[in-house]
Amino acid sequence: MDSNVAAAQMQYDNEKKSAGVAWLLWLFTGALGGHRFYLGDKGMGIGLLCTLGGLGVWALIDGFFINARLRAANNRKQQEIFVRNGLSAPVAV
């Protein structure tokens, strides 16, 4: 059973989203929603893209929420992988 947990954890480590990438996407493509697309928020990404980040205001405010969205995206990914491997998902912190 421990090998299943290790395999699931390794798969998660390979698929989790990077904070550095998310922040760089926000910095360079924030008004186009690049960071939202990367974190899996396609609807919000399209909204940013169509409004050019709310003329920059929405994109600027979005910078305060990147870390929380990153944690949520990674928690969802971890639960998905663990469940797919027949394991109970670890409790999110």
TrEMBL record:
Please classify the protein's predominant subcellular localization into one broad category.
Answer: membrane
| Transmembrane segment boundaries | 21-39, 45-68
Which of UniProt's keywords are assigned here?
Membrane, Transmembrane, Transmembrane helix
Domain TM2 residues, every copy: 16-64
Q: Where in the cell is it found?
A: Membrane
InterPro entries per the UniProt record, alphabetical: TM2, TM2D1-3-like
Q: What is this protein called?
A: TM2 domain-containing protein
Report membrane topology.
Multi-pass membrane protein
Q: Which organism is it from?
A: Kocuria dechangensis
Q: Which GO terms describe its cellular component?
A: membrane
Which parts form a coiled-coil structure per UniProt?
none
**What highest taxon heads this organism's lineage?**
Bacteria
Q: Which Pfam families match?
A: TM2
